[in-house]
Each structure stands twice: as structure tokens, then as C-alpha cells.
Design brief:
This protein is mainly α. It has four helices and two strands; from the N terminus they run ααββαα. A two-stranded antiparallel sheet has the order 1-2. A hairpin with a 2-residue loop joins strand 1 and strand 2. Helix 1 crosses helix 2. It is globular, with a radius of gyration of 14 Å. The N and C termini lie far apart (31 Å).
Length: 72
């Protein structure tokens, strides 16, 4: 479950900013925003709209929290 309040807290921005951005992304068809969840509908287009720091943040996230390898 994710709320606008939680996202705003994690990003250090106002709840109103999160509401504004999610409405824009939803109207652009990039996300589906329903109570308690945000679903990415078009990741490639979403990545184009975000700042150039997305790749840097993603690499750092993957470095700090690597995905577990599947064992057979």
C-alpha cells in the first residue's frame, strides 16, 4: 500500500506536489493511480519524462539493494 502522504514523505516534498504530479502522469497515460497503489503503465515514456538523475538513482538503489539471484 502506498499513499500520497507516504510518497511525499519519502521524497521530502508536499503531499500536494505528489497529487499534482500523479495527476499529470495519469493524464499522460504513464501511470494508473488508485487508492493505495500506483501502477506504471509505460515505463519507457515515464523514464523520458523524469530527470537525468533517474539512471544514477537506479544504479545506486541496485548497488545497495541487489536483487536476489534465483537458485535452481
Amino acid at each position: 500500500v502506498i499513499t500520497h502522504v507516504l510518497v511525499s514523505t519519502l521524497l521530502g516534498v508536499s503531499r500536494e506536489s505528489v497529487v499534482h504530479v500523479t495527476k499529470k502522469l495519469k493524464s499522460d497515460g504513464l501511470i494508473a493511480d488508485v487508492v493505495g497503489s500506483i501502477k506504471v503503465l509505460d515505463r519507457r515514456k515515464l523514464e523520458v519524462q523524469v530527470c537525468e538523475c533517474y539512471e544514477t538513482v537506479k544504479k545506486e538503489y541496485d548497488r545497495l539493494l541487489p536483487h536476489p539471484k534465483h537458485s535452481l
